[in-house]
Amino acid sequence: NIDKEESIELMKESVNFVKEAIEIELGNECSGRRVLIAGSVGPYGAGLHDGSEYRGEYVETTSNATMASWHRPRIEALISAGVDVLALETIPAQAEAEMLMEMLKGYPHMKAWLTFSCKVINIPFIC
């Protein structure tokens, strides 16, 4: 039960904790090597707390502007905290992925990857 501002601050703090952990763990022993920090950005549906982050049907009733206004503060918090790359993870719907790709044009120096969660239909599994 935290509000939006607290959640943004926690995201920034988590990046700072990672930076401190890297410095403590690696110190000077990895001079010349760089450890990259990825900031995780999950789907809009995760904030709905109804399991729709796995199904993606929320894109049918949620505008791109609404999803963008939900994602933007999180992305900006991670970038301002100093992540090296954004991990846009388990996005269940093409419309949200396209919106995120469009949004990233506003951060031309930020690297990112995007992964999807996909529904498996009629594919036999061998266990």
Automatic annotation (TrEMBL):
Pathway: Amino-acid biosynthesis; L-methionine biosynthesis via de novo pathway
Sections of the chain in a coiled coil: none
All copies of domain Hcy-binding, residue ranges: 1-127
Keywords from the named record: Metal-binding, Methyltransferase, Transferase, Zinc
Record-annotated membrane-spanning stretches: none
UniProt-listed Pfam families: S-methyl_trans
GO annotation, biological process: methionine biosynthetic process; methylation; S-methylmethionine cycle
GO molecular function, a single term: metal ion binding
Domain of life: Eukaryota
Keyword Magnesium: no
PANTHER family: HOMOCYSTEINE S-METHYLTRANSFERASE-LIKE ISOFORM 1, ZGC:172121
Name this polypeptide is given: Hcy-binding domain-containing protein
Species name: Clastoptera arizonana (Arizona spittle bug)
Source organism phylogeny: Eukaryota, Metazoa, Ecdysozoa, Arthropoda, Hexapoda
